[in-house]
Amino acid sequence: MPGSRLSRRPHTRAYHIMERALSVLYHGGWAAWLWARVPGACRVGLIEHELLVPGREAGRPPLRIAFASDLHLGPTTPREVLDEAFARLRSTQADVLALGGDYVFLGATTERVHELQARVQQVPATVKLAVLGNHDFWARPEHLEDALTKAGVRVLVNDSIRLPPPHDDVAVIGLDDPLTSWGVEERITLQEGLDAALARVAGVPIKIAVCHSPDGYPEVKGRGVRLLLAGHTHGGHIALPGYRPLWIPGPHGRLWPFGRHEVDGLTVFVSRGVGGSIVPCRTYAPPDVALFTLRGSH
Ligand SMILES: [Fe+2]
After folding, report:
1. Buried-most residue among 43, 44, 68, 181 (CB within 10 A)?
2. Domains: count for the chain
């Protein structure tokens, strides 16, 4: 339903009050500045994976997909972290840049929206696509979509695209955000959205899904999708030694807090994301971006 596709979705009153309080508390960006002073805290990992896809024609070159999520432009994400994340993304020389949502924290201000556009514009990928996350729907999603579109990105909310040759045997499906689409009036369910997105690329043999949260998994499983890319969890954001999260949002996030997981022929990858959110630092949940290389296997 086009009118409600990007509707701003209200969060709880308690969360609204907390956001207002955090905006005052973090005013001036001191928290991100302090984070950046911690030795090593601005390092962003590049996580590389190979994915063998049975039946992919031998003549096709490998498909390289760079994935980044949870940028969280705002007062709790150091500029240095974003600089390194985007340097990593540019260095991959990927064919496709996929973005997993949560582009901002504490609102889509004009400054943040312009910064997002400028940073994404500089990534030299042939195809750029994005889904939106809970913080985007709580902000001004239409402004974020506009900025991303100007940066050459196709925003997929229950939508899909077929990649251009020589990777036109691959389609990418972008799902709505499972958390904020729940209970939204006039929304279509994730299942209906996925059905429609899949129907548009029915003849394409290899399908990859992007969803802000791994809680999109129940919809995607058993639907012929080979790879699900997600973020949202931040790997716990604050975790104990051994990368053991104290708390993770969502049932599938708790199952797969970060990393690659093979589930019934579907590869699920959950990124720890890049930026800060309520707590302006991370422990044992270092920021990451990812590069997936898809090859045929015979
Ligand atoms: Fe996030």
Report:
1. 68
2. 1
